[in-house]
Amino acid sequence: MTGATGRVALVTGASSGIGAATARLLAARGMRVVVNYLRSAAAADEVVAGIEAAGGQAMAVQADVREAAAVETMVEQVQAAWGGIDVLVHNALIPFAVKPFKDMTWDELGGKLDGEMRAAFAVTNAVLPAMTGQGWGRIIYISIGLSRQPRPGMVALGTAKAALVQFARFLAQELGPTGVTVNIVEAGPVADTRMASVLDQEQQQRQVAATPLGRLALPADVAQAVAFYAAEDNAFMTGTTAAVNGGMSMY
């Protein structure tokens, strides 16, 4: 990545899956990467060790991204070590109920909406001062195809991610004049992630059959789209969505 050396990227939920793949790729392209995690310290340390073994720079920092104070402490830690955060990849998966609406409580639906937006608000709020102060920043939110195309049992996740996508568009419009771009990477079903475990074998086979490229996405596929948006020279795309679904859905 041209000129990426020294940029600092914060990847939330980066101890496994899409987050870990993204952290590795951004580090390989010259960024110093903050591997955020909630509980999986050993897994986060493993991601950092792998990045360092490959010649990159990374640090693992624990924080519940739903808690503004914890996020502020994390950002202060990073600032003390490396300075401000240039790239935010908000990937952390906020827990949700898998059930039809008729069986759902408001606490389950409203709680997911609150957790999703609370986390997005907290991490964005914490990184923006440094980005706007220097007139350069990249914000990438990880969403999912369910925000557009409903699937049984996924009303809480799909509704929350739809809110996140619209939040991102408003931010893109507001932050454009400051030099900060805001984009969305919208993943289809991704193998080797916690989300994939929601699908049984038969459901996975149906998803593969409906995908022109003939397989589910891998975390590395999603990471490629994130890295594209995070690139130093990708300066004129904001408020857009990259669908990483192998053609399963075409918008």
UniProtKB/TrEMBL annotation:
<comment type="similarity">
    <text>Belongs to the short-chain dehydrogenases/reductases (SDR) family.</text>
</comment>
<dbReference type="GO" id="GO:0016491">
    <property type="term" value="F:oxidoreductase activity"/>
</dbReference>
<dbReference type="InterPro" id="IPR050259">
    <property type="entry name" value="SDR"/>
</dbReference>
<dbReference type="InterPro" id="IPR002347">
    <property type="entry name" value="SDR_fam"/>
</dbReference>
<dbReference type="Pfam" id="PF13561">
    <property type="entry name" value="adh_short_C2"/>
</dbReference>
<keyword id="KW-0560">Oxidoreductase</keyword>
<dbReference type="InterPro" id="IPR036291">
    <property type="entry name" value="NAD(P)-bd_dom_sf"/>
</dbReference>
<protein>
    <submittedName>
        <fullName>SDR family oxidoreductase</fullName>
    </submittedName>
</protein>
